[in-house]
Amino acid sequence: MNARMINIRRLGIDRIQAGIILSGLYIFFSLTGNIAATKVTYLGDLVMDAGFIYALTFTWRDLIHKQLGQRAAVTTIWLAAAINLLAALYFQLVVLMPAQTDWANAGGQTAWEFLFSLQMRITLASILTALIAELIDTKVYQLWTAGGRDKWPQWTRVFASNSISIPVDSLLFPIIAFAGVVGMEALQQMFWTNIIVKAAITALVFWTIYLVPEKPIYREG
Q1: What's the number of domains the chain is made of?
Q2: For 42-62, what is the mean pLDDT?
Q3: Are the CB atoms for 3 and 207 separated by under 8 Å?
Q4: 161-178 pLDDT per residue, tens
Q5: DSSP code at position 42
Q6: Cα–Cα distance for residue pair 120/132, rounded to 1 Å
Q7: Is residue 47 in a domain?
Q8: I need a labelling partner for 5 at 20 to 30 A (CA). Which of 109, 147, 190, 206 fits?
């Protein structure tokens, strides 16, 4: 697959542009996933939140790590956490703002209060969970690429790091976000469904690790 690797220069994209795109999409997956997670849905008999787009952050973090280095990956994780928190706080401000009468009578204010009061809890749960799981992902990726394993197929580093971070994320997030809102059986279903869905998404997108060259903008100190 290395012979078919896409060269970002052929696309007319330099490394700074590549860094902006990689980090921007990571934050998009994170923020969109947190908002979508306010809806609890199901897949067959399995219960899950609708924020499954968040699963893309694990592999995307690996792309950032590969192209920009470990410090950039950690910076992006913290930046995404800060942006999610600021967005959630802004939504709380919007909840407190007076609602236009016709819009409120149509149910808008009630719906907004329900979704975004829950969204604040989900955001805090996601921030805590993401910091733990994504920093673990970063550490595992760094350890896996150390020594002789940097010559191993690149997809192995994606599966190695995700195999640890996904179960951690899948366990912590439902408990922190939904305990007391849904029952214990639903929490257990969410745990297993999250692992299945996130593992499936990893299996579908692991090849994206080959989209960026392994030439970080800077060398790790």
Answers
A1: 1
A2: 85
A3: no
A4: 999 999 999 899 888 887
A5: E
A6: 19
A7: yes
A8: 147
